[in-house]
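Kindly review both lines to help learners:
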Amino acid sequence: MVTRRAVLGTLAASGAGLSLAGIGPWARAIDPFDRPKPGRLKLSLAAYSMRKYLTPQNGQPPEMDLFDFVDFCADHGLTGAELTSYYFPDQVTPEYLFRLKRHCHLRGITVSGGAIRNDFCAADREKVEQDLQHTRTWVRHYAMLGAPVIRIFAGKEVPGEELDVTLARCAKNCMRACRDAARQGMMLALENHGGVTATADGLLGIVHQVDSPAFGVNFDSGNFRATDDPYAELARIAPYAINAQIKVEIHRHGKTEETDLERVLDILREAGYSGWVALEYEAAEEPRIAIPRWLERLKSLV
């Protein structure tokens, strides 16, 4: 395959100019990762799964904090935990991060990844700069915790703007964020999370314009909702995955069904993905009851 990086290098040497949007879909800045198959998987749990307890309710403090969440993971036989940024204190200090890192270490838990909110599609430059600074801050926090990767979002379509323009701007902002992440030894994983990434085409339309070794995809099994075959969409993005989340429900044009967990994990393995797979529980059943049962099922498959 002729890569986009090779095309750009040739053109640069010849003095020719070319915009990001001007290259055909066959040319890619990032190619599927060349990895041994089948991949080897490790099981983690996303803190978002316990959002009911980690979020203040009716003016009352949350029932759990991240130290409690790490204990929950350890008590249920896990070795990994995804620590979502939403549940950290408002003021995150080096002392807090050290205490949390020490607690994880003593409970035998690896911080499998992090998660933040951002919008890199926005046309509002001030908003984008704020989100880039937010990303830099959390890159430093997660680097101190020893996480290898942070899940990021792309954002929404901009009303009245051609989608190609929006995707190109998002890709540019992803590259800026990746430069900062690489300096801290971190990687950023773009999630298929609605908006412009509601389809594999939208997600890959950004991925194919980002040229950074600190970049890849966050594979989320439950987020392709507007398709007849979400498994086929997942198979398209799996070769680019550097982080993975699995949900117990999947959607076909808005209709919800139970996820074929084995099929999702096989998609990852067949793509050569090796690494953490975090259960991100979003179903209606009580999390304290449902999550242990789903973890046991996943342990037998992973």
User: Anything to note?
Assistant: The longest strand covers residues 41-46. The radius of gyration is 19 Å. The first helix runs from residue 4 to 14. The beta strands are 41-46, 80-84, 110-115, 149-152, 187-191, 215-220, 241-246, 249-252, 255-258, 275-279.
